[in-house]
Design goal:
heterotrimer, A alpha/beta, B mainly alpha, C alpha+beta, A: alpha/beta, Dimethylsulfoxide Reductase, domain 2, Barwin-like endoglucanases, 6-stranded mixed β-barrel, 25 helices, 26 strands, globular, B: mainly alpha, 16 helices
Chain lengths: 736, 455, 307
């Protein structure tokens, strides 16, 4: 037709394709030529997408072990905001800042997107084949599995897998864990994680338990705290006293914050029992006997708390019943940490709080789903095995020991000795970086899972199974959930049993449907209806099993805290921030930019020094100082902080990553690397606060990047900015 | 005191001397022009960064949302006032001594306004939407906010700029005609022919000229007072400590006249030296200018004290704290420099011998202007650093090189405009100098005839 | 467009006093008048920052990174301020000598710290509104200071005149900044509101996108706005429920009940209860004496002093 062989039809075709290409090039990296993407018109959206309308799906927050129930707002297939699930007995529709940042864990630009074998991108088939090959040459005892706390069906699958391998080497490690608390609670109250009823207490005396910040289940406790503070509560407005060497967020909210000499919390607790007995409170015999030597004068001398203050504390506890005494990491992180905690628990018993504000909690009726919780002792055990070259294959998942193990353990070196290291990781953190094979994990917004929170709110024997469901499709096609990976591994081992399940979703559905009756679906004949109800609520309420062991009438033999070493005169109190936690959230930019509540510092770590000590050392704010312990030296900026014991300094954990993406890497200094390997005598838990340091000034100084301005938290007598009023000056009874 | 001008200068000599200044630039002229251009180029480069990357490159922040741009803006607006003072107010008061120096003062008014205008643009976060601030009928049915002092500001400056351009131009017409008549054929001749609007010096033309000139002068005076009062309103109408002061408008006007007069002394010295205008820009005229400047300096100092007193004896803790902060805080070196340059240095002008000492007066005038620039900065920044709300205080903010670069560049721009002006419009008013010489001659004759009166 | 229109309708956009123009004509368009207001109980506030992070998530606030934070260019619409107790002596010396070190040495920490969430106070007679040269910040019919990003030319006069310094300027084009929303973080952005460009001012909107939806729903259903219709992002997140939000003109709303129980009147610059010897109420507004008539009431932090 035409001379150049280019007819009209061809022309239109070209135009059409060209036009499509142009239209699509505006939508990110979609390319229709590659056939990689389907283009769907919003005039015919999928069922679950209503253009411009947010739809809400319930799921479970995976940001910390509290396991709050959340609701994700999804717009056009993208999850954009997380809220609390109002039906939750844990968080009652509320969230913390850490929970809010869950979307940034999901959309993080530094996620691992494909399996990597020795740095080379491989397919899942190749990755699984590599594991299979390495496992073939290993006996069960030569395979170790290191995880963070796990529960629910992932735990069940993991147990099955380890059983299939013939391995008993499951190590559960949490860098910051309430392990001492669990042990002492079991011993003293008969239950590892009782239900603390701050909302029922008339007075709370907390020995370093940062229940508003990072302790156990902060959102739950925050709501209890709000009730506790209400003036129109039947019990009246509650009074909070916080006793700790470094002011935590909870300490900042106390009616009285008492700076105690680090490690002497148990002494004060026994001193209070003694003082209460003297004041006429009927103290049980074992407690009275344990406390009889702790006279106020002696206690005051040893703890640095004035006798007058001890007297007022005793009066408070005597007058305000029921009360609640809590022990947190500030009291537990010592070689005598368990003893401290026991003394504090004994104070609760002396006050008759056990049963009143410390309720026995129920455990899940499905023991195979119960949380398997972690501690530091597990890491030590694994480390010993690694050092001995015991393991041919090591799996790690949801934990980052290469970063968080104290340098004195030499964990990184020992880890390198393992034959084949497999890391299930969402980000290329320090541990994943040291691994041979990295398997990319789904985020909590893409994965299926169930979980059982260790600390359960609610009343009586209430407990629940929380469901984690995908809030959107996978961002990256090649990531898998932990459940999927375990299932794939199990298929290698016992194909007969598991080949029926296409993926973890199928397994989970069948597992839950199999227990429909027990899960409260007795009246529901139709599986699909039960399943849909379960997913829409994402909470399965259960009648828990109350199993209470008899508390021991142990009278703790308090050993004296270690004497200060003259060359390392200051006690280092590592602090756990409510947002960065043990360091696993250092790559979420909202949390890095969210100021630390007390120092208001962002994007860096710091060392808190008491003004008097700073003056003594000639240090001013912003001086770069060397913080030196027996185990090493790190450099950071000095912040002059009034809320700390003059003989202590404090640094936040979680900074100073050497990997884990653009936001975490190189931000701040890693406190774990200078911790001395001192352990609690009874539980083997790392004694976090048992490191002594010296501070020496370098010749560098910076302007600290923080929210606080030059007024330094002073209101400069400008009337009525942030007003505080004495409780006797207000009438709270008529408040709304 | 000597005579303001010799009465025996021939009119042709005046033409010759003054016209020499508009002709054949020397090599040095081009060098300076090039330097001015380069300095302006630095400013342009900085503005390109501002525009493309965002105003953050200036190191401004919350709460320091305004910085040197606004301070320098006020500085240049202030500079513009002396021109009007000399050309309009003193004209109406028949002060003859103003005649040899008002032309360049008037030019200074125009050019400093043009420089100030740049800062309005530079300061904006979205320069490309600047037309939103103009009250013009549009299809969006949106108006600017007539309540905003910033809008008054824009209007006042625009009116003042256009009026002073007209005033400068009208006043130059007879001289432009002289240029036209005395210059060789070429593009300049054509330019002067057009600009002089066919001026022939007829009686009718002179009469109309006088009336127009007088009218514009009358119009300009309230404008000049209002424009800086309005700039003061930017601050006085706000609620911030240190700004919310009723005495701000007169204080600003005084400050403006002060810096303007100081700048006149500076330019007086430069022009006198460069163009060898010793015959016209005589020492007695310098002495009068210096005395005027001193008087204004004292008014400014007085108003400054009033401001401090009202802060000190007022009940606002915040106002007081800003004042204390100025004197003792991070801005103290600049604030005390301002006090020194603005209130102490002018006492040098009390020394009779120094009043006509050109090097001393040149140095003094530069110091005065430095003081006045510091004054504007000390009005703007300390309030941001130390406002009502202690939490948002910020004492560490320091302007970035970009900000300094634009301030620096503005001096290049001003110099550039002024240099071009010098070579196009005679910087000394020939016809008024002739008038002055005539007045002198007349007075002398009257004296000789033993008659009373005369100027 | 006419000048008469301009003059007649002027008062709709500006207030010098909340009662100036006898209510707001446009409010009649809704089932009943709306005045969004908040109350923040400082006794319940623990300073945990959840509200602030929730605000980042809801309102597309950019993370500016360490350098820009250091330059004071952070964009937190809701900031948590932390104050220490101050002994009287230090205050006096501090104020006259500006001796910050001295005060820092003498902070009183016996009662912990004090936290204050500070956000735009949505003043009824807002200092920011009158000064904007282009009218980019206006009073809306539901009683908010709206910021019209399209109209803003970035003169920053509003921020200069804000006594609380709660307005945040886009010093950079944050969507282009490599650290703010690198792929795929940008997929988290809330499509209900824009990402602001460089050169415009922004601030807390009381989650306009949420209140607007709630208002429209109420209108469609022909009923009053109820408390459960809308929560701001900060309120929804707050673990202690320290923040209440709602329609102050609806006597059934929690906010209205709190304001009236505390005897805080929106239209007064000095409350009747202030200075009375038997005043045992703890509601107050910050910098009330400057007459901006803020829409946020704070409740004083209560502390037991005898322990």
């Amino acid at each position: 037709m035409s001379e150049n062989g280019f007819n009209r039809r061809d022309f239109l075709k070209t135009l059409g394709w060209g036009g499509t290409a142009v239209a699509l090039s505006g939508c990110g990296n979609t390319s229709i030529e590659d056939g990689a993407e389907f283009v769907t018109s919003y005039s015919e959206p999928a069922d679950y997408v209503i253009p411009s309308i947010g739809v809400y799906y319930n799921s479970t927050c995976a940001q910390c072990d509290a396991g709050c129930n959340i609701t994700g707002r999804v717009r056009e297939g993208r999850v954009i905001k997380l809220e609390g699930n109002a039906a939750s007995a844990i968080n009652h529709g509320k969230t913390c800042g850490l929970g809010q940042a869950g979307v940034q864990a999901h959309y993080n630009p530094d996620r691992v997107t494909q399996p990597k074998l020795n740095g080379q991108t491989v397919t899942w088939e190749q990755a699984l084949a590599a594991i299979s090959e390495k496992l073939a040459g290993a006996s069960g005892a030569e395979v170790a599995f290191l995880t963070g706390g796990v529960s629910g069906h992932v735990r069940a699958l993991l147990d099955n897998y380890l059983a299939a391998l013939g391995s008993r080497e499951h190590f559960v490690y949490e860098a910051v864990s309430p392990a001492v608390e669990r042990a002492v609670n079991t011993k003293m109250y008969g239950t590892a994680m009782p239900r603390y009823r701050i909302d029922k207490a008339r007075a709370v005396v907390s020995f370093g338990a940062d229940f508003l910040g990072a302790w156990v289940s902060p959102v739950n406790f925050s709501q209890q705290y709000a009730k506790f503070r209400k003036g129109n509560r039947p019990e009246g407005r509650g009074v909070l006293v916080q006793i700790e060497p470094k002011m935590t967020l909870t300490g900042a909210n106390a009616d009285r914050w008492i700076a105690i000499r680090p490690g002497t919390e148990g002494i004060l607790a026994l001193g209070l029992i003694n003082a209460l007995g003297a004041a006429g409170v009927a103290v049980p015999g074992d407690a009275a006997a344990a406390a009889k030597d702790y006279t106020t004068e002696r206690v005051s001398a040893e703890t640095g708390v004035s006798a007058d203050q001890i007297g007022r504390l005793a009066t408070l506890l005597k007058e305000r019943t029921p009360s609640l005494v809590l022990a947190g990491s500030a009291a537990e992180g010592y070689a005598n940490g368990s003893q401290n905690a026991e003394a504090i628990a004994l104070l609760n018993r002396a006050l008759g709080n056990v049963g009143a504000t410390i309720e026995t909690s129920a455990s899940t009726p499905f023991p195979q789903l119960a949380p398997r919780v972690g501690n530091r002792a597990a890491l030590t055990a694994l480390n010993d095995g690694l050092a001995a070259g015991k393991y041919k294959v090591v799996f790690t998942c949801g934990t980052n020991p290469v970063y968080s193990a104290p340098a004195s353990l030499k964990f990184a070196d020992n880890y390198a000795k393992a034959g084949f290291k497999v890391a299930l990781a969402q980000y290329l953190d320090e541990t994943a970086q040291a691994a041979d094979l990295v398997l990319p994990l789904d985020s909590a917004m893409e994965a299926w899972a169930t979980s059982v929170p260790e600390y359960m709110g609610g009343e009586g024997n209430y407990t629940q199974l929380s469901v984690t469901q995908p809030l959107m499709e996978r961002l990256y096609a090649d990531t898998r959930s932990t459940g999927d990976i375990l299932l794939a591994l199990l298929k290698q081992r016992s194909p007969d049993e598991y080949s029926g399940f296409e993926d973890f979703y199928a397994y989970l559905r069948s597992a839950l449907l199999a227990n429909k009756t027990a899960l409260g679906g007795a009246g529901e004949a139709d599986d699909d209806v039960f399943w849909n109800v379960t997913l829409s609520q994402a909470i399965i309420p259960l009648q828990g099993v109350v199993s209470k062991s008899a508390p021991q009438s142990a009278a703790p033999a308090l050993s004296a805290p270690a004497a200060a070493d003259a060359s390392y005169p200051l006690r280092l109190i590592p602090s756990v921030s409510a947002s960065i936690r043990d360091g696993r959230h250092a790559n979420e930019p909202w949390l890095q930019e969210s100021p630390d509540p007390l120092t208001t510092i962002v994007w860096d770590s710091w060392v808190e020094i008491h003004p008097k000590k700073a003056a003594e050392l000639g240090i001013v704010e912003g001086d770069i100082v060397d913080v030196t312990s027996k185990s090493g030296t790190i450099q950071t900026q000095a912040y002059i902080f009034p809320g700390i014991h003059p003989d202590a300094v404090s640094m936040p954990l979680g900074y100073g990553h050497t990997a884990m993406g653009r936001y975490a890497k190189g931000t701040g200094a890693n406190v774990y690397s200078i911790l001395d390997a001192v352990y609690d005598k009874d539980t083997g838990e790392l004694a976090l606060n048992e490191t002594s340091v010296k501070i020496s000034k370098t010749d560098k100084r910076v302007i600290i990047v923080k929210e606080e301005g030059p007024a330094g938290g002073s209101q400069v007598n400008r009337a009525k900015i942030a007003v505080k009023v004495s409780a006797d000056k207000v009438d709270l009874s008529k408040e709304v | 005191m000597g005579k303001d001008i010799r009465e025996d200068i021939a009119w042709a000599q005046i033409n010759k001397d003054v016209l020499a200044s508009v002709q054949s630039p020397r090599k040095l002229y081009w060098v300076i022009l090039f330097i001015a251009l380069a300095v302006f180029g630095v400013g342009i480069g900085c503005e390109v960064m501002n525009y493309r990357i965002g105003l953050g490159v200036s190191n401004m922040d919350n709460p320091h949302v305004w910085g040197l741009y606004i301070a320098t803006f006020i500085f240049w607006i202030g500079m513009s006032h002396s021109g009007t003072l000399l050309s309009a107010i003193l004209h109406l008061m028949h002060a003859d001594w103003r005649k040899p120096i008002y032309r360049f003062a008037e030019a200074m008014t125009t050019f400093s306004l043009m420089t100030a205008g740049l800062f309005v643009a530079v300061h904006l976060g979205r320069l490309w939407q600047i037309y939103y601030a103009l009250p013009y009928p549009n299809e969006r049915w949106t108006w600017p906010n007539f309540q905003s002092p910033l809008l008054w500001d824009a209007m006042a400056i625009f009116t003042y700029l256009s009026s002073s351009v007209i005033f400068l131009y009208i006043g130059s017409i007879p001289d432009l005609a002289i240029c036209r008549d005395n210059i060789q054929a070429g593009w300049r001749k054509k330019l002067y022919s057009i600009l002089s609007l066919g001026w022939e010096g007829t009686d009718r033309q002179w009469r109309n000229f006088r009336i127009t000139y007088m009218t514009v002068a009358c119009f300009l005076i309230p404008l000049a007072v209002s424009v800086h009062s309005i700039v003061a309103s930017d601050f006085a109408m706000s609620q911030q400590p240190g700004w919310h002061v009723t005495s701000f408008p007169p204080y600003f006007v005084a400050g403006a006249l002060y810096s303007g007069c100081a700048a006149i002394i500076t330019l007086f010295v430069i022009l006198r030296y460069v163009f060898k205008f010793e015959e016209y820009m005589t020492l007695p005229i310098l002495r009068k200018t210096v005395r005027l400047t001193f008087a204004i300096a004292m008014v400014w100092t007085y108003l400054n004290c009033i401001e401090f007193a009202s802060a000190w004896y007022g009940h606002s803790q915040a106002d007081k704290a800003v004042l204390i902060q100025k004197a003792t805080g991070p801005y103290a070196p600049f604030w005390w420099s301002m006090i020194f340059c603005g209130s102490v240095v002018p006492f040098a002008m009390m020394v009779k011998k120094w009043q006509v000492n050109i090097p001393i007066m040149f140095a003094v005038s530069l110091l005065l202007n430095l003081g006045m620039w510091l004054e504007r900065w000390m009005i703007v920044s300390p309030t941001f650093a130390h406002g009502y709300y202690p939490w948002s205080w910020d004492h560490d903010q320091w302007p970035s090189l970009v900000q300094w670069g634009i301030v620096f560049g503005s001096f290049g721009w001003f110099t550039l405009l002024f240099m071009v002006f010098c070579k196009i419009i005679p910087s000394v008013s020939m016809y008024e100098v002739k008038e002055m010489v005539y007045h002198r001659t007349l007075a002398k004759k009257k004296e000789e005839l033993g008659l009373e009166g005369g100027h | 467009m006419s000048v008469s229109n301009l003059l007649e309708n002027w008062s709709k956009y500006r207030h010098t006093h909340p009662l100036d123009d006898g209510g707001h004509a446009d409010w009649n368009a809704y089932p009943s008048p709306i005045k969004w207001a908040m109350s923040i109980d400082l006794d319940a506030c623990t300073g945990c920052n959840a509200c602030s992070v929730a605000c980042y998530a809801e309102n597309n606030l950019p993370v500016v990174g360490k350098d820009k934070y250091a330059h004071g260019q952070a964009m937190h619409w809701m900031r948590i301020e932390r104050y220490w107790g101050e002994p009287e002596k230090a205050i006096d010396e501090f104020d006259s000598a500006m001796n910050f070190q001295l005060v820092a040495q003498n902070f009183d920490v016996d009662q912990g710290a004090q936290f204050l969430p500070m956000l735009c106070q949505q003043c009824e007679a807002a200092p920011c509104e009158t000064v904007c040269p282009v009218g980019a910040t206006n009073h809306t019919e539901d009683g908010l200071n709206s910021q019209i990003y399209n109209r803003c030319i970035g003169s920053r006069y509003c921020s200069a005149n804000c006594p609380y310094k709660v307005r945040y300027f886009n010093w950079y084009s944050y969507p282009d900044q490599e650290h703010a929303w690198p792929e795929p973080l940008n997929q988290q952005l809330n499509p209900d509101l824009t990402v602001r460009t460089k050169g415009v001012m922004e601030k807390c909107t009381f989650c306009k996108q949420r209140t607007y939806t709630a208002r429209n729903d109420a209108k469609t259903e022909g009923r009053e706005i109820r408390d459960e219709d809308v929560q701001t992002a900060c309120q929804q997140a707050c673990p202690t429920g320290a923040i209440s939000f709602g329609n102050l003109f609806n006597p059934e709303s929690t906010v209205a009940k709190q304001w009236s129980a505390q005897q805080v009147d929106l239209v007064k610059e000095k409350q009747d209860k202030d200075g009375t010897p038997d005043n045992k109420l703890r509601g107050y507004r910050i910098l009330e004496e400057l007459r901006p008539f803020p829409s946020i009431m704070y409740l004083e932090r209560v502390r037991e002093s005898a322990v």
